[in-house]
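Below is how a single chain appears once it has passed through the pipeline. First comes the sequence as given, then the structure the pipeline wrote out for it. We keep one example in the README because the format questions we get most often are answered faster by looking than by reading.
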Amino acid sequence: MPDMPPRFEKHIEVTSNELIAVDLLAQETGISKQKIKLIMQKGAVWVTKGKKTQRLRRAKKTLQQGETVHIYYDESVLNMEPAEPILLADEGRYSVWNKPYGLLSQGSKWGDHCTVTRWAEQHLKPQRVSFIVHRLDRAANGLIIIAHEKNAAAALSKLFQERQVEKHYQIWVHGKFDSQASIDNPIKVDSNIDERTAVSYFSWIKYDAVQNRSLLEVTIDTGRKHQIRRHSAELGFPVVGDRLHGNNNDKEDLQLQAYYISFKCPYSHKKKVFNLLATE
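Resulting structure:
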C-alpha cells in the first residue's frame, strides 16, 4: 500500500452499475480491502444518492451509476478506542447511559465509532438504531439519553426544548467559591454564548482547603456549547481540568459530571429519575 497522508478525503463518482463498495474504495485509495471494511464500520465512509447522503457501512453494498462515495480518512480518529459507557436503563424506545470522559455524544464525517450512540447500536439487545437527543461534552461525564426511534427522538427532544427535563451537574473549580451561594440562593450567570441566551446557576457545596478547590452544584436554563465551563470561568472559578476555558496546565480530566436527570416519560407518563450520586 502506498504511503498515505495521516488525514485526507476522497470523493469518488460511480460511473457504472454493479460496482461493489469495498472494491471501488480499495481501487481508488490503494488501501487494503480489510482496512477499508474497518474504516466503513467506524463510520468514515458515506454515499450520496441524489440529495441524500448517509453513512455506508456495508462493504458488499452494490453501487449504482450517479452515486458518489466519500471516504474521510483520519488516522488519529480511526485509531481512537471508545471508552465504555454504562447502561442504566433500557426503556425500549430510548435508553439512559452513564457516559464516561472521552466518549463523544455524536460523531463527525470522520467517524462515529467513539460515540455513545454507536456503542448503543452495537451493544443493545435487541439491536436498534440510535438517535442523539441532547449532548454532553466529550470531556464531561454523566447521564445521557439516547433514542431508538425517530418518534422517540422527537418526543424527548421536545421535553428538552420545553424545559421539562430537570438536570443537575457537579463541578470542581479552582479557588474558594462564595459559601453563601446556596441551592436556594445561587449565583446566577446570564451571559450570552455565541449570541444566544445562556443562563446558569452556581451553588456552593464544600471547599477543599488542601487543594484550594470548591465543589459546586450547577443547573442551567439553556444548553449552549461549553456553557457551564464558560460561565464558571467567567465568574473567575474555572472548572478543574478545563484546559480550553480554564488552566491549560491542568493534568486531570475535566471535573464536570451530569449526575441527575428527571423527566416525565412520554410513553408511560411516569416520572423517571436518574441520580448517579444516590446511595444504595
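The mean pLDDT is 95.

See the next section for the split statistics.
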